[in-house]
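An example makes the point: we print one protein in full, the chain in one-letter code, the fold tokenised, without further comment:
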Amino acid sequence: MSQGGGMDFNLAEEVLAVIPTDTYEQLDLARKITSMAIASRVSNMEGKMGRMRAKMYEKDHIIFELEDKLSTLQQLNQDAESRFKIAFEENIKLSEERDSLAMTAKKLSRDFSKVRLKILILFALIFFF
């Protein structure tokens, strides 16, 4: 059914029955309906925004905790790296000392063999001559 000039807006009979016939009253009703729709939309968006803010604060808190953990782990890594470097350098020194002692032991063994040989020769000379 149409109202006001024969235009059909596909509105139900019940809706058409309550729409005022005066065009200014129709515009006022349309403004009120639009205001209600906008207010409802704004309210819904504010609710969503509040929930999104809460999620954002929660994620910010998680980020803060993760950054704190990262900082702690980086410090632990630096400490471990420092201890490793010290142990590695000490290991190098000990290896060098071991090699030096092995060379000294070889030299002393050769010297001992020479002295022993000289002693044997001296004893042989003393007893056989």
Summary: The chain has one domain: 13-128. Residues 80 and 86 are 10 Å apart (CA to CA).
